[in-house]
């Protein structure tokens, strides 16, 4: 039995099926761990959800920010945005069943035998794995209850900026959700900068990737995450035990499968045509790589 962690699919269903063929995935015995953002921006969100749900116990997934946005839209709190591509999902005959299934998925998964934690975005530097699981459970219980409609009404927004154990109500749930599904950068005290999205080196000087904050409580824990397709090491290697696997399939990068049932971990990649044109931050990343390659060919450093 093989277990693979899969990077952000975002509705790129054909690429997902091609990658699974490439790794010889056997749905009778192998297992897939999806790091969230199953839907949106790519062309086949409906097919993606139907397929992953059909795998039953052979697939587990955490929720990403695009998955939560879909739920908010499906339950009529939010109108579809100009860049959203899940209209077919909203009008599908099995939509209600798919949305009910999706909102019952966790925000964080921890395998104590493998000592691996899977989530979509990041972990606050002051939270241990145990505390992260406890806080995630608070939000999961709301999503899986009849009160989930009210959750979507209060989900959007960047505040509060500072974590405090005494936070309560919707501000508490919003902060937890933002950290687990949107975090990339924060300062040394854990204050998130949720709208900073570029590759490391492009951020303000006081900001750090969440996995580089000194003395974070999860620095000895293996964490797999997606969400951050501009990371140059995504799908290649880890930094401080944090494995990034969103390698930008949507934008013409790669879709990554990371085999995690044996060590050392192994990566498999599918090069993707790209369902959308990369935003400026992705273009800068690719231009930088191109310049570096030219320098290497010329023998310069």
Question: Mind explaining what this structure looks like?
Answer:
This protein is of the alpha/beta class. It has one domain: Purple Acid Phosphatase, chain A, domain 2. Helix content is 33%, strand content 15%. It is built from nine helices and 13 strands. The strands form three sheets. Strands 3-2-1-12-13 form a five-stranded mixed beta sheet, with helices on one face. Helix 1 links the parallel strand 1 and strand 2 (31-34). The protein is globular, with a radius of gyration of 19 Å. The N and C termini lie far apart (44 Å). 43% of the residues are buried.
Question: Can you describe this structure in just a few lines?
Answer:
The protein has 301 residues and is α/β, with parallel strands linked by helices. Helices cover 33% and strands 15% of the residues.
Q: Name the strands of the widest sheet in spatial order.
A: 3-2-1-12-13
Looking at this structure, what is the CATH superfamily?
Answer: Metallo-dependent phosphatases
Q: Helical stretch count?
A: 9
Name the shape in a single word: globular
Low-pLDDT parts are 285-301
Tally of structural domains: 1
Helix fraction by DSSP (H/I, runs of at least 4): 25-40%
What is the number of strand segments?
13
Largest sheet: 5 strands, mixed
CATH class equals Alpha Beta
What do we call the CATH topology? Purple Acid Phosphatase, chain A, domain 2
Strand content: 15-25%
Mean pLDDT: 93
Report the radius of gyration as a whole number of Å.
19 Å
SS-based class:
alpha/beta
SSE succession: EHEHEHHHEEHHHEEEEEEEEH
CATH A-level architecture: 4-Layer Sandwich
């Amino acid at each position: 039995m093989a277990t693979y962690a899969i990077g952000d699919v975002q509705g790129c269903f054909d690429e997902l099926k091609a990658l699974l063929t490439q790794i010889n995935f056997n749905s009778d015995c192998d297992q897939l761990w999806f790091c969230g953002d199953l839907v949106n921006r790519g062309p086949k969100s409906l097919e993606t959800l139907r397929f992953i749900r059909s795998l039953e116990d052979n697939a587990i997934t955490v929720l990403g920010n695009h998955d939560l946005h879909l739920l908010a839209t499906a339950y009529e709190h939010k109108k579809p945005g100009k860049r959203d591509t899940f209209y077919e999902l909203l009008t599908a005959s099995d939509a209600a069943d798919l949305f009910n299934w999706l909102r019952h998925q966790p925000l964080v998964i921890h395998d104590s035998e493998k000592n691996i934690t899977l989530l979509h975005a990041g972990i606050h530097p002051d939270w241990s794995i145990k505390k992260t699981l406890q806080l995630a459970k608070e939000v999961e219980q709301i999503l899986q209850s009849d009160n989930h409609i009210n959750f979507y009404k209060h989900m959007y927004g960047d505040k509060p900026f500072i974590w405090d154990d005494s936070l309560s109500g919707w501000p508490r749930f919003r902060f937890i959700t933002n950290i687990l599904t949107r975090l990339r950068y924060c300062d040394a005290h854990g204050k998130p900068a949720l709208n900073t999205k570029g590759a490391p080196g492009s951020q303000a000087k006081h900001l750090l990737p969440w996995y580089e904050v000194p003395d974070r409580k999860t620095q000895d824990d293996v964490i797999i995450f997606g969400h951050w397709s501009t990371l140059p090491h995504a799908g290649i290697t880890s930094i401080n035990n944090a494995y990034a696997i969103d390698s930008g399939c949507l934008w013409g990068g790669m879709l990554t499968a990371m085999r995690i049932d044996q060590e050392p971990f192994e990566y498999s990649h599918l090069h993707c045509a790209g369902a959308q044109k990369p935003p400026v931050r992705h273009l800068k990343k690719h231009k930088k790589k191109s310049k570096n390659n030219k320098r290497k060919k010329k023998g310069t450093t």
